[in-house]
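BUG-273 | component: ligand-complex export | severity: low

The export step for nicotinamide-adenine-dinucleotide jobs runs without errors, but we want the raw record kept on the ticket for reference. Input record follows.
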Amino acid sequence: MHKALDLSQKVVVITGAAGLLGRQHAKVLAEVGAKLILVDIDLEGLEQLKSDLPQSTWCELYQLDLREEKQIYDCVTSLTAKLTADDELVLINNAAIDAKVTSDDTLNLTRLENFDIRQWDLEIEVGLSAAMLWCKHLGKVMAERECGVIINIASDLGVIAPNQELYKKPQLADEQQNVKPVTYSVIKHGLIGLTKYIATYWPDKGVRCNALAPGGIENAQPDEFLSKVQKLIPMGRMAKVDEYQGAILFLASDMSVYMNGHVMVVDGGRSVW
Ligand SMILES: NC(=O)c1ccc[n+]([C@@H]2O[C@H](COP(=O)([O-])OP(=O)(O)OC[C@H]3O[C@@H](n4cnc5c(N)ncnc54)[C@H](O)[C@@H]3O)[C@@H](O)[C@H]2O)c1
C-alpha cells in the first residue's frame, strides 16, 4: 500500500455521519485506519454505524444539532482535548437536510413562488451555516496545529442548475409541478464559495480545503425519474452508494497534498454535457 493511504494519524470528523453517504465515508476511512469522530442528530443511526464498523476502529459518537453553534463549539473543545501531538485533523462537512422533491399538494411548497422562508432558514443553517461554523471552530484548531484538511460535500448541483424537467409529472398543472428547491442550489454553490475562501485563508498554516461534488445516487427513485435522469448522464446511470469512497480517500489523505480550493466533480459526466 502507498504510505499516503495509511490514515492512522488522521482524526476525521464527519458531520451527518449517520446518513446515506456519511456511513460510506466512515466505512472507507475506517478501513485505512483513520480515527473517526461521527457527528449527527440521529443517535440511533450513529450507534448502528459504529456497530457496522470493524471492531478495531477508534470511533467516538457525538449527538448534536448542527443548528446550535454552542453544541459545535463544545464538540470541538471535547474532541481536541483528546488529540495527541501527532494527530492530524480532517473535517468532512457532509450534513444536509435532504429536501426531496415529493410534494404534490394543492399548494406545492417546493416551488419558488410558495417557498417558505422558515424552510430556507432551516436548510441553510444545517447545510451551509454549520459548515462555516465547523471551519470557524475546528479550522482554528487546525491552523494552531499547522495541519488540517477540510472537505465540503457539495453536489453536481453546485456546478450546474437543476433540470426541473426531471421532476415533472404529466398529470399535474404547471403551478403544481414539483421542483428541486432553490435552497439546494444556493447551499451547494455556497459550499464551493466557502471552500475557496478557506483554501486561501490559512494556506500558510497548513490547512487546505476542497469540495467534492457528487452526482445523484440511485436509491429507489421512481422508474419515471430514473429513465429521465439516466439520459442526462453520459455513463447512462446514477452512482452506486459506495462510488464516492475513492474520492473521499483521495481528498482526506496526503494523496491530494497539493490540491487546494478546488471542486472534485464525480458525476458520471453529467455536468460536462
Ligand atoms: N444522496 C445523494 O444522491 C447526494 C448527491 C449529491 C450530494 N449529496 C450530498 O451528500 C451529503 C450527504 O447526503 P446523504 O444522501 O447522505 O443525506 P442524508 O439525508 O442521508 O444524511 C444527512 C444526515 O444529516 C443529519 N442531519 C440533518 N440535520 C441535522 C442537524 N440539525 N444536526 C445534525 N445532523 C443533522 C441527518 O440526521 C442525516 O443523518 C449531503 O450534503 C448531500 O447534499 C448527496
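Assignee comment: Attached the raw record above. Residues 16, 18-22, 40-42, 45, 65-67, 94-98, 126, 153, 155, 214, 216-217 surround nicotinamide-adenine-dinucleotide (CB under 6 Å).
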